Structures are given as structure tokens and as C-alpha cells.
Amino acid sequence: MNTSSKQKQHRYFIISLFILALLLLLIVIKEFIIPILMAMLLAGLFHPYYQKFLVLTKGKQSLSSALVILMFLLVIVIPSFFMVAEIIHQASYVSGKIFPFIETQFLATGKTHNSLPKWLPFKEELVPYTEEIFSKLSNLIESITSIIISSLSSLTQGTLVFFFNFFVTLYAMHYFLTDGKSLLEKVPNYLPITHQEFRKITTQAVSISKATLKGAFLIGIIQGSLVGVAFAVIGIPGAVFWGAVSALFSLIPSVGTAIVYVPVAIYLLITHQITAGVGLLIWGFGIVSSVDNVLRPYFVGKDTQIPDILVLISTLGGIGLFGITGIIVGPVIVGLFMTIAKIYKASN
């Protein structure tokens, strides 16, 4: 056997060992891949604050990292737990109390031909199907409520798995804040890509994460809050819950929060609450729906160039695969794919 053949066999053997070791590693850490990935993204997002704390603490890395994690807990995590608990409470109330009330009011309105407003399109055709239409809508809303309750309940049930994964996320976040830079400098040495290409990939991941958080969370929170305030003023029960639902639907381009407030406005108009119905429509189309067009360019800027349809699909697919963290993970995966595709095209 000549030297060239031995070198090829040696190379193939090493590659096989590497792939086998990688597969075994993934099997071992498969339950912690999402917590570690979230820790990486959070470390990248909070790194500017870590740098500022380094200046204040005169270069003490562990203390600076601890301050960043404390800020993360106080500003984001703890308020989120209280908000989630309130959303679940109101969702249970809406599901158990409000739907029967609306059903009674709506069906009472629909039983009499003359009780429907004259302006209602296809009034003659809709009257016989009023009960069936409401039944379908009620079932749909109840299904959405059930999904939201089951998805959020895991955050407040205090399960051992949840808190263990959360601890792993915080610990990994601390590690990536203090040693992430040196780790990133070493990674390209073990990959068949240049340092510049690897830096481009990591930069894109952080940029997309920031854009997703700003676009999905901040704009969603603002739009959801505006809808919740309007519902509270009008007197719609469960305003916090409906605000949360509106924030979730704000992920859908163009339509977004209108899915929530338009049916409510139509119900108000049908039940002859004209001032409240018209006011809600004006507030919704004039203020709530315009927030996305006005604030998204300011918040997101040019951090990401992912088309809206891909953002929607990747977000929904990410939620289905990874749970609530998929709101971030889904678009990041799509963004990384687009970046790697550009690098591949440039290399050919």
C-alpha cells in the first residue's frame, strides 16, 4: 500500500470517527440543544450590555456576566411570568364564562329577522344560519384559547424539567458571555470554512435574532397592548388575554391583529353598540394596524432581509417544532440558510 492510499484511509477513518462522535454527542445533549441554542442567542443579544458592565466592573468577567443575567431576569423573565399567569387566568375566564354569555346574546339577536341591522350584507341569507355560524366561530375561538392555555401553562406549573432547562440556559449564557469570543475564534479551525465566512454566519445569526425580537416581540407587545386597552375601555372581558392573542396574531403580515378586533367590532355593531363598534374599527385600522408599518422599519431596520412570508412560515413552523422558542429559532434557521446559500454561491 503506497503512502497516498494510507493518507486517504487515515483521512476517511478520522472523518468517520468525527461523524460518529458528533452523532453520539447530539444523542447525549439532544434534550438540551434548544436551551443551549437559546443561551447562544441571548448571549449575542446581551453582549453589548456585557461590554458596558465590563467597563463598570473594571474587567471582572464573572461579575459582569452575573449582572447581565440578573438584568435579564428582572427585566424580562420575572415580569413575563406574572403576565403569563394573568393571561392564563383570563383565558380560563373567557373560555368558561364569556362564550356562553356571547352565545346567548348573539343567538337572541339572530332569532328575530328584524333584529339584525339593515346594513348587514346578505342579511336574508344569513338569518337561517346564524346559530351554525356562531357555533363554528365559538368552537374556533375555544380551540385557540385551549392551545394558548396549554402552551403557556408549562411556564407556570413549576415542572422540574422546565426549571432544569432554564438553569442550563442561564449557565450556558454565562459561559458564552465570558468565553464565547475565544470559542468563536477557535471554531473555524475545525471547519472547512474561512474565518471571514464563519464571522459572517455568526453575525447574521445575531442580526436576525435582534430583528426577530424587535419585530415580533416589541411590535407584538405594542399592538397587543393597544388592542387590550381598547377592549378594556369598551368593556370587553379578558382584555389582557385578547391583547396576548393580538400580539400572537401580529406575526401574520398585513392581516395581523385585525383578526382579533374586527370580529369583535362586527359583534358590537350587530348588537347595536354602534359607537363602540365604530370606535374600535377606527382605533384598530387607524392606530393598531399602522404601528407595524411605522415602527417595524425603525425597530428592525436592515438587520434582516427575510421576506415576510418566510418569516411567517418559519415562525409558525418553529413554534410547532420547538415550542415558544420557535418564534426566534425558526427565523434564525431560515436566515442562516440564506446566508450559507450566499456563501456557497460566492464560492463557486
UniProtKB/TrEMBL annotation:
Cross-referenced InterPro entries: AI-2E-like (IPR002549)
Main localization, broad class: membrane
Protein's recorded name: AI-2E family transporter
Subcellular location as annotated: Membrane
A Pfam cross-reference name: AI-2E_transport
Keyword field contains Cell inner membrane: no
Alphabetic keyword roster: Membrane, Transmembrane, Transmembrane helix
Transmembrane among keywords: yes
Lineage, opening ranks: Bacteria, Pseudomonadati, Bacteroidota, Flavobacteriia, Flavobacteriales
Membrane-topology descriptor: Multi-pass membrane protein
Transmembrane annotation, as ranges: 12-28, 34-50, 62-85, 160-177, 216-234, 240-262, 269-289, 309-338
PANTHER family: TRANSMEMBRANE PROTEIN, TRANSMEMBRANE PROTEIN 245
Family label: Belongs to the autoinducer-2 exporter (AI-2E) (TC 2.A.86) family.
